[in-house]
């Protein structure tokens, strides 16, 4: 028994080691020591990023810093022998997945490769950054990739032209993309590669395609040597609030592939998104994939397909792809097969209870543990070293599974339990497939291998055991890679999700280890698994919350209500308690213009704070509908916004030539924004589907903070920086329009 106990402990530790290694399943290929002529050169591309960014200051659209970046970008294009075109437009675009419209003056930079005849390939990246960071990855990597490809392909005899679009204003709401759609060049395009980023390292994910995706996936599978992509991520992305330039371009029906690395989101949209943080291997993978696809798309027109396919990359070595109807048919067949096998074997209900109990119980236990840790540590305390919290959740899954196997499953036969597990696995996959059909691909092959082993086992007994082992390996190669990517995508939580996700990989292994659990006995097995879970949560508790690489989000704002002359300090962070050197009277709350929870404290007045104004110039009625023309007065602010309540019924907004609709089916407040120097004096047109005046909050923001913020800036934690928002001064007023 003692030997069995030690062996079980070793097995459980090995399982946790395998779970810790899931991020390694999908990684970019090793960096080449040198690049041959015609190959993408990551070292040279990184130098291009450094040159274009200069002093690495944030450069939002229509700012002096953006002017400097654009000048260096144009110089780079000229240096490689291309003739750049700069389009200067004031444009507006709808805020996809949000009720609103955003406007800005943008200068798109365009260069053309190859002859002018035939349908063109568009390579798109944006050169503007958010106000909080320099944008070395988002989207400096995309900009440098386009420059490298331009230098490689400029002298080749291309069958189809390639248009390089360096657009401005993506971060403001895809304004540059909308401006390009008004450009005559856009009418001669039928294919698109879009380059984005949500991190500075890790594998480059092809996370979005045109719909139907048959043509795009066929091209991707044929051209790319180290594919990292899956249709589950593509479906999940469509359900998320994020969007890229592809959202604007999609109305043209171009064959589209969208790429982005997602490694270490803590640097994304922050001062940490700098050149030093970029992983050259990630940049090389982005360049290699884009170059290979560009060559393929410039050589011939993509075939037309009206079919959707499900797909997944396997450890970066290949892409498995099936028609959606075939995948759905296989899923249904497998569910029926394992349902029959489970019913014939008996004890199906107890087997289902073990599987369901593990999936549900592990999530509940992990959430309880996280809540308890939250009583001691606040905020995203796992941010610096998320591996320990992931391992603690996986250890919780192991504990619940061992407990279920040692009690409810004590007298159940191992092989029968395995059949019931695969049934539950498939049913969960079918449920996911109802909302995200692309997820079906992850639930087909491991149970298919297991089923083949069961059927062959009727003639050769070892076949069932071998089939089960291969199925578990296949499960790790597919779901393991997905878990590694999810660890990056969900690094802000909810962390408890990794417990039931981990059950996909851990439970079938524990079922195979059931004889060892029985030899140890229920108390000893549960004790070993429980100790591992406690050690895991202890490590999560002891790990530092933040590091120099993975810092805390910490945004300081000074906010002024121009009507009441009240002022507040606002701190936007991850919910963590403020440092001791901040005054103890800070309270959690909301501001009149935002429902986001933040830390608030009354602040001294800023004598330079002045809210923008909206001057009503004209109002045209058509029944209950009103069309307003409003002049915006910046009053020294850099970014302006009109915020209206959810019942305002604003149908469209924008400037002449770019009046954009607002989706009435979306929820929440309305936001009409304008950013940059050119917003002062701009004439906005709003169409409102109600006769009564609407109460608007007129909001303006600018950098820097007032001098009275100096003590707060000095007190900001050492391992903290702004993210998503910059430190800024905000002033707002209320007007009825």
Q: Can you characterise this structure?
A:
The chain is of the alpha+beta class and 737 residues long. The chain folds into three domains: 241 residues, no CATH class; 246 residues, Zn peptidases (Aminopeptidase), CATH 3.40.630.10; 186 residues, no CATH class. 40% of the residues lie in helices and 23% in strands. The protein contains 19 helices and 23 strands. The chain has a 16-stranded mixed beta sheet that branches. A five-stranded antiparallel beta sheet has the order 14-15-20-17-18, with no helix packed on it. The chain starts with a helix and ends with a strand.
Enter the CATH topology name of the largest domain: Aminopeptidase
Domain count:
3
Structural class computed from helices and strand pairing? alpha+beta
Number of helices: 19
In the predicted model, the low-confidence regions spanning at least 5 consecutive residues are none
Q: Biggest β-sheet: count, sense, barrel? A: 16 strands, mixed
As a percent range, the share of strand residues is 15-25%
Brief overview:
This protein has 737 residues and is of the alpha+beta class.
Structural descriptors:
737 residues; alpha+beta; Aminopeptidase
Write the layout of secondary structure elements.
Blueprint: H1 2-20, H2 42-53, H3 64-79, E1 85-94, E2 100-113, E3 120-126, H4 140-153, E4 162-167, H5 175-181, E5 189-195, E6 201-209, H6 214-223, H7 231-239, H8 245-249, E7 255-263, H9 280-299, E8 309-313, E9 319-323, H10 324-345, H11 348-376, H12 386-406, H13 414-435, H14 445-456, H15 462-489, H16 498-512, H17 514-520, H18 522-542, E10 552-561, E11 566-573, E12 587-591, E13 594-602, E14 613-622, E15 625-633, E16 639-644, E17 650-655, E18 658-661, E19 670-675, E20 683-688, E21 695-702, H19 710-715, E22 720-721, E23 728-736
Parallel strand pairs: 2-19, 3-4, 3-5, 5-7, 10-22, 10-23
Antiparallel strand pairs: 1-2, 2-4, 6-7, 8-9, 10-11, 11-13, 12-13, 14-15, 15-20, 16-19, 16-21, 17-18, 17-20, 21-23
Helix pairs in contact: 1-12, 1-17, 1-18, 2-3, 2-4, 2-9, 4-9, 10-13, 11-12, 11-13, 11-16, 12-16, 12-18, 13-16, 14-15, 15-16
